[in-house]
């Protein structure tokens, strides 16, 4: 049986004996937990008790890689997360080792944005008690010398007049956007081209993340798909 046949066999309704615990209607029963595992073995796409999104186990090698974020002088990215853990790296990207970076992480249940656009590292923090197993929304917005962090409608703004570069790197040098952690080879590379080297020491995220979306100068939201990922066996 080929790959498509395996997936169809897993997902087609077969009554209560189905691997996902489907009832006679073909829908998962309320007590069922369905888990679709991409057969390459690198990613879990979970639908468990109504929870949808990418499942990060928080292991020493877990991560997901998304396309580069190129906001220009005015753009944003947004996503949602769900977790019971108070600490963990949500997202990181930089300009290939010069001076600009964006790091979003959970610190004691709050979302903290640390970034540098050439005028020195800045911090913004929003939310409290976000490790409550509920979905929370995060949005980071670049607006020239203004940077905004919004968590569940709570907005924090920082104005940095001495920023050297309002464009945030370029397509030729920026790293991908890493979510939940960094690839093991990047994290272990001595003298690697990471602008914020200490990001490799951050605890990896454990929980669910979904809906990563970029908005650039044309103001059109674009949902992002995973480029590569890894979970431990």
Automatic annotation (TrEMBL):
Note the SMART domains from the entry. Answer: LamG
GO CC terms of this entry? membrane
- InterPro entries cross-referenced by the UniProt entry: ConA-like_dom_sf, Laminin_G, Neurexin-related_CASP
Signal peptide span: 1-18
- Any Pfam family: Laminin_G_2
Q: Where's the Laminin G domain?
A: 53-233
Ranges that cross the membrane:
none
- The answer to keyword DNA damage applying to this record is no
The record's listing under CDD domains reads: LamG
- Asked whether the keyword Ribosomal protein is assigned, the reply is no
Keywords (A to Z) from UniProt: Signal
Put simply, this protein is called: Laminin G domain-containing protein
Give the species: Meganyctiphanes norvegica
């Amino acid at each position: 049986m080929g790959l498509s046949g395996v997936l169809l066999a897993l997902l087609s309704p077969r009554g209560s004996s189905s691997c996902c615990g489907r009832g006679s209607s073909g829908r998962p029963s309320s007590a069922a937990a369905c888990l679709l595992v991409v057969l390459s073995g690198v990613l879990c796409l979970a639908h468990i008790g109504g929870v949808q999104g990418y499942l990060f186990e928080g292991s020493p090698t877990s991560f997901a890689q998304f396309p580069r974020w190129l906001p220009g002088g005015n753009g944003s990215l947004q996503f949602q997360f769900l977790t019971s853990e108070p600490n963990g790296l949500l997202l990181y990207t930089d300009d290939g080792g010069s001076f600009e970076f964006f790091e979003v992480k959970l610190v004691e249940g709050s979302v903290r944005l640390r970034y540098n656009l050439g005028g020195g590292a800045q911090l913004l923090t929003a939310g409290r008690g976000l490790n409550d197993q509920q979905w929370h929304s995060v949005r980071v917005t670049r607006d020239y010398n203004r940077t905004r962090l919004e968590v569940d409608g709570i907005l924090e703004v920082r104005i940095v007049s001495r920023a050297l570069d309002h464009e945030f790197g370029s397509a030729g040098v920026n790293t991908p956007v890493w979510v939940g952690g960094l690839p093991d080879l990047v994290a272990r590379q001595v003298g690697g081209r990471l602008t914020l080297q200490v990001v490799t020491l951050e605890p990896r995220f454990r929980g669910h993340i979904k809906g990563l979306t970029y908005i650039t100068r044309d103001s059109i939201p674009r949902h992002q798909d995973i480029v590569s990922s890894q979970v431990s066996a």
